[in-house]
Design a protein that fits this description.
The chain is α+β, with helices and mostly antiparallel strands. It has 5 helices and 7 strands. The protein has a 7-stranded mixed sheet, sandwiched between helices. Helix 3 links the parallel strand 4 and strand 5. Helix 1 packs antiparallel against helix 2 and helix 3 runs antiparallel to helix 5. The protein is globular and about 35 Å long. The termini are close together.
């Protein structure tokens, strides 16, 4: 049986997701972000997912479709520190891209805003920079905006990347 899985977020994951945030807060998030996460968990603007290891939430993130625009926005996207560099973030990202690509009508762009520390991860996964905002977050942190063009990839290609990310995460975690 697989140790790693992706599923929809449920209220039962709340404590684990908040613990993931707290574990990463000092390095990756600004002051006040925990309150925003709690609001997101209480009333998400779109689908949210948990990547689980042995049934426990180890990564979390979601997306929302902006109906008026031809884009989706990724929100959050974090993994427990003990699982950094194990591929859970990549798996979570590709699961969200697969889900967005399957939405009807198909959305063209997927956007994300993130910190300078995390922006290289998205670039490595095929996102391109669209803007850099010094002090773009109220915490004073610089914000990088990036986008992924879904028109440049096939749904089957995204599924293959997601499946490869799952296999890689399983191998790194010892599944």
């Amino acid at each position: 049986m697989s140790r790693v899985a992706v599923r929809r977020y449920t209220d039962a994951d709340r404590a684990a997701v908040l613990a993931i945030f707290d574990d990463n807060a000092a390095r990756y998030f600004g002051a006040g972000d925990r309150g925003w996460l709690e609001e997101t968990l209480d009333a998400p603007d779109g689908p949210a997912f948990a990547v689980t290891v042995d049934g426990m939430a180890a990564a979390f993130g979601g997306y929302e479709i902006w109906d008026h625009y031809n884009k989706a926005l990724l929100y959050w996207g974090m993994a427990a520190r003990r699982y950094h560099r194990c591929g859970l973030g990549r798996l979570l990202l590709y699961e969200r891209l697969v889900q967005i690509a399957a939405d009807t009508p198909r959305t063209r762009y997927v956007t994300v805003d993130t910190s300078p520390r995390v922006a290289p991860f998205f670039r490595h996964c095929g996102f391109e920079d669209t803007a850099v905002w010094p002090e773009g977050y109220r915490s004073g942190m610089t914000m990088h905006e990036l986008r992924f063009d879904l028109a440049a990839v096939s749904p089957a290609g995204l599924i293959a990347q997601r499946d490869a990310a799952l296999a890689a995460a399983e191998a790194r975690i010892g599944g």
